[in-house]
Amino acid sequence: MITISLCMIVKNEENVLERCLDSVLDIVDEINIIDTGSTDNTKVIARKYTNRLFDFKWVDDFSAARNESFKKATKDYILWMDADDVVSYKDRKKFLDIKQHLDNSVDVVSMNYNLAFDEYGNVVFSSRRNRLVKREKNFCWIGEVHEYLNVYGKIEASDISITHKSVYHDSDRNLSIYQKLLKEGKKFSPRDNYYFANELFDHKMYTKAAVIYEQFLLDNKGWVEDNISSCSKLADCYHELGYRDKELNSILRSFKYDYPRPEFCCRLGYYFLEKNNFNAAILWYKLAADPSKLVVNSGFSQPTFSTWLPHLQLCVCYYKIGNNKLAYLHNEVARQYRPNDKNILSNKEFFESILEK
Question: How many angstroms separate the CA atoms of 108 and 135, rounded?
Answer without folding.
Answer: 10
